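User: My instructor asked us to take a sequence, write out its structure as tokens, and then describe one feature of it. I'm not sure where to start. Here is the sequence I was given:
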Amino acid sequence: MPKVIAGSARGRKLKAPPGERTRPTGARTKEAMFSAIEARLNLDYIRVLDLFAGSGQLGIEALSRGANYCVFVEQQRRTAGIIRENLALCGLQDRSKVFPTRVQVALNVLGRENSSPFDLVLLDPPYKDVPHLWPEIFQSLVKNKLLRAGALIVMEHDKEFEGMDFVTDLKLLKRCQYGNAMLSFSIYTPL
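Assistant: Let's start with the prediction itself. The structure tokens for your sequence are:
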């Protein structure tokens, strides 16, 4: 069962979706992820986008640590309901929005709404889908003007995937391996 590691909701146990459709980020991996994020980015007052959110634990961790607002995208309606329950459990529902739809649909809606750009994007897609999803998602983020210059993009993926540097305006900062999981940290540097 995932729990919040630090901040205002520290120690809160979060509900996780039943079954094997989601793969929660392990506590050790999540702690390493947020240590690296906070070394580069002050989380106070930033906007976060949590894609393939599952239980919402990554976005909730960012909110707990001071992020101003988080948009969660999870296509499984039942799982999106669990995100809402977890946000309420942590008292963070007023600083968030949950989209119970596919990532591409949510990104297009945010673009049409002229959403303010995000400072941090967290992605934890199904590992097998990363190679064909990632280029389309990144292009949609850029097309819809959802990334602030200098935005940090953190993706958890299989250690075999190496396609983070396929465009000139995305700079891979580092990769860290935790078991079969790999974390890639990139920064958006538009020309």
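For the description part of your assignment, you could build on this observation: The chain has a mean pLDDT of 90. Try explaining in your own words what that tells you about the chain.
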